[in-house]
Design brief:
The chain is built from no helices and 7 strands. The protein is mainly β. A 5-stranded antiparallel beta sheet has the order 3-4-7-6-5, with no helix packed on it. The protein has a two-stranded antiparallel ribbon with strand order 1-2. β6 and β7 form a beta hairpin.
């Protein structure tokens, strides 16, 4: 892990998750839906990203980079997959 030389704070670095690049998705504002994280913190998600894929390898704390409409980087708060494993929704917060 790389740290800031002045503050000592960790500097995040990101890598692509193999098999999860250039996927078709829809991004829509969700009105600030509450999400409870693993450490029991409640945060508000700003957007929902819907995908026609099973996203079981994606975990909260990862990021999604979207191009096209609503382009930006989103922090993933929660991943939900339907009962058949055919579609997924990610509740996210826009970070840039």
């Amino acid at each position: 892990m790389t740290r800031d030389p002045d503050s000592g704070e960790p500097i995040a670095s990101w890598a692509n998750l193999a098999g999860y690049i250039d996927l078709a998705c829809a991004v829509a504002p969700n009105g600030g839906q509450e999400v409870q994280t693993v450490d029991q913190t409640i945060v508000l998600s700003d957007y929902t990203i819907s995908l026609p894929e099973d996203m079981t390898a994606v975990e909260p704390a990862m990021q999604a980079v979207v191009t096209g409409p609503n382009a930006g980087t989103y922090g993933i708060l929660s991943v939900q997959t339907d009962s058949r494993g055919a579609t997924s929704r990610m509740l996210v917060r826009k970070v840039s």
